[in-house]
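Predict the holo structure. Ligand: zinc ion.
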Amino acid sequence: MTTYRIGHGYDIHKLCMGRKLVLGGVEIAFEKGLDGHSDADVICHAVMDSLLGAAALGDIGGHFPNNDITYKNADSLKLLTRVKELIGESRYSIGNIDITVIAEAPMIAPHIPQMISNLSRALGISANDISVKATTNETLGFIGRGEGIAAFCVALLRK
Ligand code: ZN
């Protein structure tokens, strides 16, 4: 009998000058980047938390502490692959993931195919099982003022 488990992940990072903008493993040309200990890739971070949540394996802060020098400027796609291994060790496989990115700027849509390809490779799942959607915050609040970028992810695991 197949068991299904659902998980939810959320992440947000602040936009600041002098940082690269990396989303879903894609470096996007923009005047600002996301601030954080790792590469601050909110998409990868939300995906990791959704997978860990579905498997009840804690969260990324527990697995990759932000006071650990190992993860300074870490490539989040590599951390994502590590999470996939943890999921596999618990004998789960990934059904699908569905991501929503909220950014006032830059335009996310042109980069979505490359993001899906990166996530597909890191997680070892088909591109058909990955959805990346982007929206703005309609100029409302801190995201609307361009102070940060957030991402949500829902993941389904099966055993
Ligand atoms: Zn993060």
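The chain has a mean pLDDT of 96. Residues 5 and 157 are 5 Å apart (CA to CA).
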